[in-house]
Structure to design on (1072 residues):
């Protein structure tokens, strides 16, 4: 630790920190704009000026920018020096010269870093009496609102968007006080991390358009710590609620997982919670064949009667439902009758992944570990589309080479301008092998394009090059063998190699190949990490719970008397004609939050809570069990699926379902029943957690409208709801201060109203939250654990005449079932398309944009042709068809389709 | 004893002083223009709603009796609903002080008793008056940098014309 003095008081910091970071870590309030823990320092805004003194006798000192000053042992600084104070106040005054008079109509107002810093420096009165410069705004698409007048030119937006997230369509234009941050012309921001501009921008230039449509101030919204349900990564989010509606989602800092950033699917995909197709009352099919609303009691009684009737009762779990709900259904129907709600193919891939990850034979990296990797191989997986936040982490990993070069030149890692100047384009090696181009190719050392089978063969060959005991690939072409040995050499030369693959790779052999490489590197003594991405927020949790049980289509093949479907649209996961037949021949009870083809088939539909109306636990692809909490407390029939199942089960006389009063009860039962989940109760504090005898307030202390918001219905204020499952009070009453990290409902500190207040909650700036990052890892490496090499090497891909191997090309927007219901996400969802190599297209005689007919899952789809020159011959890429993904990969016949209805 | 006598004497003297009580409602009291009575929402000089739905009145309210929801029309912010629960209001005037657009104002009117408490819940149509009230000339959007129909960027007070970012001139 480096010790130094600030205003005569001793402070200490890590030796590689800058003074600004050290001051913030010491709890001092020093204003800043352009610095960000993830972006480093550039010294552009001149806001964090402090005095530095040469020694004890130096009374004059000199001004330095704290963010550009490395802390040195024994150094003396002054924040409170009158000259420094005046300097900082002047800087704010200059920044505010052109700031428009529009805080009341600004979405950032009340959580604005510029407001906070202006208050902090004490600038209160405008002396400048001349005219203000103005700018025209741009339409930046359905996510982001642009108001350029408010800009203070800190450059954070372009540094994040271009340097950090790899975007290309946001830049700075013009010069001096004319600088303009925007696109070259109006249009949607293309990068899938554009939503972070809302939090990165210290003022209101970039604001959340979806939030603006149903706007409320930060102090007026309840916050609930939650977990994103958009993909399998389990990014931490804060859900903001007011008047029974989810108003927005903001990032919730978790040093090990998402850090400061979320992807746009997670941030803007919440609309399904408020959507009109929500199911809010139990529905029962009457004798006339129509589903009509029934009371809660009738629904439970009917469900219990179906359960008591006997026969073969099967339960189908859900990869997007919480562990608690899945466990409740498993308990209700018995482990043998509980089937994971995966498609057959996906089920095979997921149980393979669960076997590999739970064996303890490899390290499963957190996203923070991914950022630390110095060489990475992405095998078959289009991460930027399937798990965007992981791709963003990889983007930071490749900067390792630049940081190493800078370290050699004695430039600290936070000195962003210096690092970029000295390192130039230096990137750590990243190898990407996928069928189609990915948005990681621009930072990849080598981007290889091959058919899935060939990618698997490449992977097996890499493993064989690393460890000679790994199975050899026979008949490998010389160029592929050379590539394999190049990748193997790079991985062997690395200190922290990373292998990434996932379900979206589509073939078991690719995942096996990725695992083989990891096993081989481990055998050679390398601390390798293996990231295997899963598609949905609890896919891994369900796979770990069902432990190799076949996916549900196998169970439906035999007749059942009752099928209970938990939060799942089966029509996205199995052959639709088979499903129609199977579901018509049985009693069907569906618990879900939104209408779907499956709920329309059901005899009884129970309104299950979405992630915003209940709490629960999800297991991310890292194997991290994380608790999410309930932000919406409105009086409806909607309740957690496990509560419905528990009520019906205990009415039907199933004693195992009887004791679940709170979530803690069912978590305890789950941890007891399945040893794999024994660490689950430690994922978050229990319901009876109290601080100084108080619950934790979920509303900010200035929550407004308490006595008026319900007064249109009844002037007498309703009794505040009670959160039975969590240590949160549902009102502003309660404790807010030092909160266990899993329970932080919103980030706020005195004087820090913006999201930058997160620095008051961290044990070290940009590191873990105080008290440790939330969640508990269920999968840890064990030194004695080992798996044998996989030896089922597929045959080389051979294109066939007249038919193509159709593979799924994932997309950020629209592939995920839940977020696809949100209007802004729908706006960004492109129409389904079919991609072919130019030669293959010529073979059919089709040009780009022409309609092709493609038979899939018993129906003929009409798809517009896109030419992807990089696609291997004989492979057809299907995009925007996540609902048909269960039928892929398969061989399809393509023909020209005439114009007509699609 | 002496003190009791003195008290009686002073009380007796009050018989000859002028009456303070007025015979309301036959006789109306004088209320200063700054009297803090019934709350209204005013309009700007162009006749548009002044309220921009910034939520500052709601947050300033010590009894939390103001509730509203923002909506937007071509860049102009409006309250979708604006509700004051006068059965809770303490007429402190903090909302008026907090209002950045002079929209919410307290008036010298206190005659709003009701037999039914529910009738004290005033919605936007009950609160909105047709004039500007105090500060008759102030129009927030003429000062603010936001573009609204009829006022483009650069047309507010103390603003220069929008910058042509493609120009090479200094």
């Amino acid at each position: 630790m480096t010790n130094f003095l600030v205003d005569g008081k001793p402070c200490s910091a890590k030796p590689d920190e800058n003074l600004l970071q050290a001051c913030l870590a010491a709890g001092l309030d020093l204003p800043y704009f352009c610095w960000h823990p993830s972006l480093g320092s550039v010294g552009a805004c001149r806001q964090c000026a402090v005095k530095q003194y040469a020694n004890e006798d130096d009374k004059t000192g000199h001004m330095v920018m704290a963010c550009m000053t490395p802390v040195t042992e024994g150094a003396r600084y002054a924040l409170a020096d009158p000259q420094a104070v005046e300097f900082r106040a002047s800087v704010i005054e200059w920044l505010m010269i052109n700031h428009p008079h529009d805080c009341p109509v600004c979405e950032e107002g009340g959580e604005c870093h510029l407001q906070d810093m202006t208050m902090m420096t004490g600038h209160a009165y405008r002396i400048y009496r001349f005219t203000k410069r103005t700018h025209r705004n741009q339409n930046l698409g359905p996510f982001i609102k642009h108001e350029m007048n408010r800009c203070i030119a800190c450059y954070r937006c372009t540094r994040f968007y271009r340097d950090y997230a790899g975007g290309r369509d946001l830049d700075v234009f013009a010069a001096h006080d004319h600088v303009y941050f925007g696109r070259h012309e109006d249009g949607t921001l293309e990068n899938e991390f554009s939503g972070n501009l809302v939090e990165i921008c210290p003022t209101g230039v970039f604001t959340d358009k979806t939030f603006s449509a149903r706007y409320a101030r930060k102090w007026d919204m309840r916050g609930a710590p939650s977990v994103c349900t958009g993909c399998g990564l389990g990014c931490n989010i804060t859900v903001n609620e007011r008047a029974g509606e989810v108003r927005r989602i903001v990032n919730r800092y978790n040093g090990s997982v998402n850090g400061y950033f979320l992807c746009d699917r997670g941030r803007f995909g919440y609309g399904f919670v408020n959507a009109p197709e929500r199911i809010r009352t139990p529905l029962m099919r009457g004798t006339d064949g129509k589903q009509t609303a029934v009371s809660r009691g009738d629904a439970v009684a009917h469900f219990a009667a179906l359960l008591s009737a006997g026969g073969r009762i099967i339960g189908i779990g859900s990869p997007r439902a919480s562990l608690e709900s899945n466990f409740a259904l498993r308990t209700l129907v018995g482990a043998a009758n509980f089937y994971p709600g995966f498609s057959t193919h996906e089920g095979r891939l997921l149980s393979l992944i669960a076997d590999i990850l739970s064996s303890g034979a490899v390290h499963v990296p957190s996203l923070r570990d991914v950022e630390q990797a110095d060489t990475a191989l992405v095998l078959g997986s289009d991460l930027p589309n399937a798990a965007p936040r992981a791709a963003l982490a990889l983007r930071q990993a490749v900067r390792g080479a630049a940081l190493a070069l800078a370290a050699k030149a004695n430039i600290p890692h936070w000195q962003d301008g210096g690092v970029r100047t000295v390192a130039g384009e230096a990137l750590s090696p990243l190898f990407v092998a996928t069928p189609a181009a990915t948005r990681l190719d621009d930072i990849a050392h080598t981007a290889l394009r091959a058919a899935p089978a060939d990618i698997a063969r490449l992977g097996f060959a890499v493993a064989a090059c690393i460890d000679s005991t790994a199975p050899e690939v026979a008949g490998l072409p010389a160029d592929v063998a050379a590539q394999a040995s190049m990748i193997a050499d790079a991985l062997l030369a690395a200190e922290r190699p990373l292998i990434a693959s996932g379900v979206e790779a589509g073939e078991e052999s690719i995942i096996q190949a990725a695992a083989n490489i990891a096993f081989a590197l481990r055998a050679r003594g390398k601390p390798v990490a293996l990231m295997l991405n899963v598609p949905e927020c609890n896919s891994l949790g369900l796979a770990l719970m069902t432990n190799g049980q076949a996916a549900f289509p196998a169970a439906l093949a035999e007749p059942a008397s009752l099928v209970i479907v938990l939060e799942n649209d089966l029509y996205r996961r199995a052959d639709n004609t088979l499903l129609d037949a199977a579901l018509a021949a049985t009693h069907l009870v569906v618990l879900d939050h939104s209408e779907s083809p499956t709920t329309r088939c059901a005899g009884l539909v129970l309104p299950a809570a979405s992630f915003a109306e209940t709490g629960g636990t999800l297991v991310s692809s890292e194997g991290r069990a994380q608790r999410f909490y309930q932000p919406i407390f409105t009086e409806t029939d909607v309740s957690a699926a496990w509560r419905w199942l528990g009520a019906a089960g205990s009415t039907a006389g199933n004693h195992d379902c009887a004791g679940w009063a709170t979530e803690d009860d069912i978590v305890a039962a789950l941890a007891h029943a399945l040893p794999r989940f024994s660490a689950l109760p430690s994922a978050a504090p229990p319901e009876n957690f109290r601080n100084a005898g108080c619950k934790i307030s979920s509303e900010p202390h200035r929550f407004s409208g308490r006595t008026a918001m319900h007064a249109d219905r009844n002037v007498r204020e309703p009794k505040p709801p009670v959160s039975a499952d969590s240590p949160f009070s549902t009102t502003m009453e309660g404790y807010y201060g030092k909160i266990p990290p899993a329970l932080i409902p919103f980030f706020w500190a005195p004087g820090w109203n913006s999201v930058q207040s997160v620095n008051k909650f961290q044990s070290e700036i940009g590191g873990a939250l105080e008290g440790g990052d939330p969640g508990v890892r269920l999968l840890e490496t064990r030194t004695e654990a080992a798996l044998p090499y996989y030896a089922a090497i597929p045959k080389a891909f051979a294109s066939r005449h007249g038919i193509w191997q159709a593979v799924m090309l994932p997309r950020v927007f629209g592939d995920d079932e839940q977020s696809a219901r949100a209007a802004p996400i729908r706006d960004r969802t492109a129409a389904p398309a079919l991609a072919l190599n130019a030669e293959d297209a010529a073979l059919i005689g089709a040009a780009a944009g022409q309609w092709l007919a493609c038979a899939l899952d018993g129906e003929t789809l009409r798809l517009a042709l896109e030419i992807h020159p990089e696609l291997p011959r004989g492979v057809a890429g299907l995009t925007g068809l996540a609902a048909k993904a269960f039928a892929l990969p398969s061989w399809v016949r393509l023909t020209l389709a005439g114009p007509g209805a699609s | 004893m002496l003190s009791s006598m003195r008290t009686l004497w002073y009380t007796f003297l009050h018989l000859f002083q002028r009456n303070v009580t007025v015979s309301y409602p036959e006789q109306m009291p004088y209320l200063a223009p700054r009297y803090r009575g019934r709350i209204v929402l005013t309009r700007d000089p162009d006749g548009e709603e002044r309220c921009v739905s910034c939520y500052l009145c709601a947050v300033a309210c010590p009894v939390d009796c103001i509730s509203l929801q923002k909506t937007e029309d071509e860049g102009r912010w409006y309250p979708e609903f604006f509700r004051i629960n006068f059965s809770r209001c303490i007429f402190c005037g903090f909302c008026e002080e907090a209002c950045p657009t002079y929209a919410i104002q307290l008036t010298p009117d206190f005659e709003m008793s009701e037999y039914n408490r529910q009738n004290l819940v005033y919605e936007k149509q009950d609160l909105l008056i047709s004039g500007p009230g105090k500060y008759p000339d102030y129009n927030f959007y003429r000062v603010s940098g936001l573009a609204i129909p009829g006022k483009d960027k650069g047309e507010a007070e103390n603003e220069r014309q929008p910058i042509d970012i493609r120009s090479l001139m200094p």
